[in-house]
Queue: 4 jobs
Job 1
Amino acid sequence: MILVQRYFFRQMLWPFITAVSALAGLALLTQSLSNVDLVSGHSQTALTFLKVTLLALPQLTALLVPIALFIALLSGMNRLSADSEFVIASASGMSRLAVLLPLIRLAVYVIIFNLAINLFVQPLAYREMRRSLHDLRSDAAASLITPGAFTEIGAGVTLYARERGRDGRMQDVLIHDTRVANEPITITAREGFIVRSSTQSSMVLADGNRQQIDAAGELGYVTFDRTEFDLGEFVGPIDAMFFKESDRFLHELIWPDASTIARSGGPERAWAEAHYRLSSPLYNLAFVLIAAAVFLAGDYSRLGYGRRVMVAVGLGLALRLTGFAAQSASAADSSANIAQYLIPLFGSLVALGVIYWPTRVRPRRLSAARG
């Protein structure tokens, strides 16, 4: 690139970085609100909350990158146009293609960045997030027990634990069971922990005693080294963990396994996700060319480009919504996957046609006016 092209590239790059950072921060804030229950409902630390929230960031970033690039191009090119720098570049002999090259170069870099997130970073992050959420939801002690407080885990059953360690083990446990009328049971133990499997859930208690009043009104007292208290009425069996389409790598989506096909009723959803991962970065090029058409197509306007910007924003929004509709249609009919590529390519070609159309028709209009 010549010096002025490098200048144009830098003038677009920094607004893009700023826009990506701002939109990612906003998305992170929105995502964090949906994860508040990790702290309140599962008694997790702020570090766990931050980890799960950050793991969702790659997918949100990949979705927002084309929008951020569109905003950056409109902002940067509007500033350059207001300073008449495009007019000066054109007067010095630069063609429209020479002005477009640094913008297209930025679009190519962003496409590669977006593609890397879609194909590698997002599945890695989402797999780890899925494992973390599964471990949290499988931790029955975190959802049932509030350390230092009496908790009614079900009708007639109250549970208390003085404290709970990070490994899920509870100290100084008390269980009071009044489900059987006139035969209350009280169990105390030095230590306890919850064991869950795919078929049952129970609390294992160690070094304690069991006190029960029978139907005759007599107190029975038994000590034990180890016993179990059935939690089947209050805690379901542990759910099996499986990866969704958003968690899988590209080869797993193109060649889905039998479990994926059985769960989704066919391979169409996996194929739609695969083609979306490959096609969505093309919107970066389409949005760059649409933004460039606002300022490079037609004659220079001293009154500003507000109306053109609003039209470009509307067209860009319509283009992206059409892409989402094509993705949704592809999940039901795999033949619609081609549309996921054609929509951004069509937008790019139309924008290029708008940019170069005035240079072809202006001489004919001038000659017709003179004649």
Note: The chain has 13 helices and six strands.
Job 2
Amino acid sequence: MIINGIQMKRESKSFTDALYAVLTAAGLFHGPTFMLSGLSGMAFKFSVHEKLFPFSVTAYGQWGKEHGPAIDNLGILTGHSGGRTRHDSFAVYQQAAIEDVKHSLDRGLACVYWIPEFGVIHGYDEDDRVFYVQDGSSIETRYVLYDNFGLNITPFWYCQYIGDKVDIPLRDAVLESLRLALEDWETPYKTLPDQSIASGRLAYSFLIRALQQGEFDSSGAVYILESYLTARSEITSYLQEVESVLPGLNEVHSIYAELEEMVRGQLNVALPLTNSNRALVHQQLPSLCTTLQQALELEERAMQQLRIISGRYPDRKRSIIPRWGAHTAR
């Protein structure tokens, strides 16, 4: 069983790219990748490990808690399976997830899957007991045995399913995406009790400090910086597209446009393209750190404006306490 018309391409964060492939193939999203990245709030997620390890880019929090609100804001029903493969119950959850994936595929809906990074399960063969998976880096299909489902080089496994869709007014979706951005910006640690990975505003400090001290993973630094620039480019394009939806967004767009142009110019010097690869020019690190500090100040200005815009409208999701309290056990 293979779903036709799916071709994941790496353009954004891997989760965004996988989700985009799934949703567009199902006819549940229309528009460019930057609109999906913006409306879901995924473009605003920024996380950095203190040693700049490559996994920083996907370490933006507990995935279920991060991806759920992102997809909810698109008006799409979603669910997920995942956890740690060391748990004694993994084998039971693994078998249940395998059946859920096949059921989703039988309905014509592909699934987002942690490979790592995130990819798309777009088919299966019951006789050979394998899933067909795309990772977005090439047009080649990878194969995952049912018996190996969820097993990978990380201690985590994860799979996201989608369902039906309801229409959300664009203004409401844009407003919620800005509030998701503010939450990410103002939450310093998304993976507590671990404090080696910073998010939002604090992620800038971790990145600048590591570059200044010189003790960091070089390939991770390149990946973080490339992903960071891609995200800021998406934010700029997204805000340009929706700036007429809410008063004041044009100012936020101008700030991000200035930020993107400044950072892109600096990274063209600090991360030159050589033999199809980018590498840091260490002599440029002081200038790069200065530019990132200026970018932090610009983004702080943008977030201050987003708070003003958000404050003009009621926020029922965050102001109404559920009947049994905000932290009901579940």
Note: The chain is about 45% helix and 15% strand.
Job 3
Amino acid sequence: MDTTVVAADGSTSVTPATVPRSPEVDCFYIYPTVDQLPNPLLQTGNSPPMPTDAQTATLLVQAAPLLSRCRMFAPVYRQVPSVAAIVTPPTLEGGTVVGHQTGIGDIEQAWDDYWTHDNIDPATGQRRGVLILGHSQGAGIAAALIRARVDTDPDVRTHLIAAMILGGHVTPSSFRTISGCARTSASAPIPTGCVLAFHTFPAGQSSPLGIGEICTNPAALLAGRPEDTELPLDTQFQARGLVRNAADYPTGFVRYPTQVTGHCEQGKLVVTGAPEILGTSQPEIGLHGKEFGIAQGSLMMFAGQQIDAWLAHNA
């Protein structure tokens, strides 16, 4: 889980991973589409889905850096497979395609179990703060979960540190009480209980995806600048030490602290960087599969600040 840091001049260094024994808050992570083929028996049967290597690898790629700050809960759910989930994603009202409602139900059941049995700290007897994370299909289901279990319940909402809903469809009217994260200046307090959301596209690529949706520029949040300000994003992707067909470094991750920049434009996080870093963009969906990595360092830094702010307020 160590990281190779690649500087702008090409020089490298290694940052070792740190995982504390007793993180003070929790993360509730909903993975994106990993099921490639339909499985009607699994979708309709009563047998619970079983964890797979693909789900574990995706969790590590997207959310492992947060293991240094939170206990990770990652429920398995029955999902719509492959491309169908991208073309017709789940809506906040419960799903537009057969199968999404099943997955939403699985995650709601997992959340209820977590909230009843795991959220209460065994040492203090108090409820813990929680970050809700989701990407792609998992983003739509995360949004549905927040709407059903968090948005209108003030007791639960008090313990929401933030939600990262990336590659989903989150608009300013998606929730009744929870809004997008924003800061007006560098001296403004760190916002908590809010949502970070965006779709990612390379500069010059147009698509209706993202228009009218919330766009969070993590670098702008850190700097206290407007979302449309072009700023360096701390980019971090998996390396070959973690998964195959990745950048050729022996560590689990490779980080480019300043080589990618981004700004919000028409609901999209528009990014500029070398093709060898960003990889190939897809028609209509842009850099959809890489949304966590494009700004992972910036996201994790801001999430850390949100955790600190929540803990200070709820000490």
Note: Strands lie at 3-6, 12-15, 25-30, 70-73, 130-135, 160-166, 194-202, 231-238, 253-265, 268-272.
Job 4
Amino acid sequence: MRTALAERLLIEIMGWDTTRIREERPLIQALSSFKYNEYQQFSIGTRFTESLVKWLEQFETLQEKEDAYKFLKERLIFISNDQMLHLVSTTFSDKINPFLIWKAASVLNISPYLKKQIVNSAEYNKVLRTSLFIGLSDGSRIDQLRRHCGLDNEQVIPTYQINEDKVTDMLGELQRKYPGEKYTTVFLVDDFTASGTSYFRVESGVNRKGKIFKTLRDIFTPEVKDSHLDKLIATDNVIDIRIIFYIATEEAVAKLNDEILKWKEENRFNFNFKIEVIQIIEDDIKISRERDKAFYDLSEKYISSDIVDEHFQKAKHKKYFLGYNECALPLILVHNTPNNSLPLLWWTSKGNTALFPRVTRHR
């Protein structure tokens, strides 16, 4: 009943005639049923069509409403729960296992193409068991990844912060099978990055911050901050660090590569690292004034500078209406909308209604 009412209101707001209604209704119903109703930050009882009505209603003219609706149909990218699960399920076969096979092949001194021989070897089992998996946030779905990989529960940490008792338990389980061993490979896993600043950034020209930085600091310079993570890892030898994102932009990958390499070289730390992405977001997905003038102008008109808070100020924010770090992404994730996405899609304020309301970590 509520959906039917929302559809009638939508028709009234958009001024559609019978022909246009026949064209648009099946599309809206399909988008709602197959994807958008899944969005986890809708308030209880709210569905996509109802949110769409409220969102379109805020625009002043019929042309603005049409421009917003057209952008929604043609440019919006929505990553559903099934799609996220697919990315998680392919991570082991696409990114993790090829590296483990290569590493075991190096120990065996044979070609990495002899996959069956390698995965059946004791060396491969040791390489796999001496790999530590760390989730960088609750979005990492590290529990689902563990099950898909068939990992031991004692080689997976849901957060980069760990207490001494957990370290003792994990080392005990590892050394029960491989006496004296520590972890020689570390996989850092998370779901999404658009700018990279949440993971590795420099503030005030000198201070480094971010989840990846803190993890690397805790491994290689535990004396800086009381940490137990270093006790798990064989830092007396060259270790391998693989950073895995299910989704990431080209810009973020380039930035993180540069920042980590610079920090590594400045401190002369001895480790290998590589950033792996299951689904890369190309730079040309971002909206631009040249290609998306109508929605660009709407964003500039309806998003005020009130959106700029202390967290926005940590990155580029002159064009705040393009989102955090001016990333300008037309992207929605099923569990929440990134602040790097276009604020006109997610920002709620006194004068703005969001299509996909965002829940922020900072309050």
Note: The longest helix spans residues 81-108.
